[in-house]
Amino acid sequence: MRACFGLFGDRGPGSTSAVDPSVAGPLKQACEQDADAGVTLAQLIYAMIKGKDAFVGDGQFDDKGLVAYLRSHLEAHEMSAVIAAVTRYNNRATEPALKLCADEPDSARLAVLCGDEILTVDLLRLGTSETVQGVGAAEETQNGGMEASVISDREYVDALRVMDSSGRGETIINALERNILGELSEEEDFLEVGVGTGIVTNAISKNFKRTSIVEINPDLMTHINFLPEMVFHESVINVKLPVGRYDLVLCSDVFYRFSIEEITQAVLRLRAGLKRTGVLAIVMTAPRNTYHELCSFFDINYTNSGHIQKVLNDLGVSYKSISEADRYICERREEFSALCRFFIAMDCDPAQTGSVRRLDGNQFLEDFLHRSKKDKGYEIVVEHDLLWLTGAD
């Protein structure tokens, strides 16, 4: 990332100084270990945390000193990503971080778009809601389609909060531990395709000596709390992986809006990266239950585990599968509506959602909310299929 290199040298036209090597030593050394692959923001953050003595002599993580130092060397949107990661690492939003993001609209926006719930909630509490809510506000699509396919940043944060409070990721982690991790011949190299919020990646990586990541969106790397062995900032369709290297390749909730041909190409690439005894695990939502009812109305062909099964069957490979379900319960109607709109926006093809007449879409969503009302609140059941196959039949 351009700004990360700028920490250690010339920032290009207009640059006035470079960082004092005696101050940035631990950062520089840690990041340069993987210089050939490019210094990522995740590596920078990891080096910051591990090399915190470079900033504070007594070894304590001094928020004010760190903010002041980085603020002088990073641009606003880059600074916000660093702050988002550090506050997540500390499991709290520090006052200097809040002050910085409240003063700089770009920082507040990026905190929201990165899904940093801790930081965003406190930003809202501090009265910056206009800044936070003003990005990507829901609006009618150009062709008059259903507005449920576009969500505001506040709704995005609400949806993530509900999913986190419901144990999002734990179901997948437990399924992997029960069915796959204990059966692996080796636990040397793990490849995660798609970081998401980092919950699954961070948990599963602890079982392996080395973890590499395929993630096309560099901003999502702020969710990682370790230093990856390799990072591929490419689409899973085009990524060039080392052949026969990985003991486990995990591809969780990645193939939404992929065609059958694209899924096939990706599966072949990922499988080629496995050791002969390695396992490729794919997690996708299943075409069952209330989640399916919601998404299939707006996009009858939304990608689900049925498409993965078709690809594997067409390739003639053997695989196993199990099903798991998450129940998301919201006490407030507004939160549940935000969660439904989140699923529609993330998992359905905009071309299809845009073809749904606004009146029909609004009426369906209203009816769906009414049917989802239970004793404890509003509930939607999201069922996942975990499918796995080895590097060789």
From TrEMBL:
GO terms for molecular function: S-adenosylmethionine-dependent methyltransferase activity. It comes from the Bacteria. Gene3D superfamilies: Vaccinia Virus protein VP39. Residues 191-282 form the Methyltransferase type domain. InterPro entries: Methyltransf_11, SAM-dependent_MTases_sf. This is Methyltransferase type 11 domain-containing protein. It comes from Paraburkholderia atlantica.
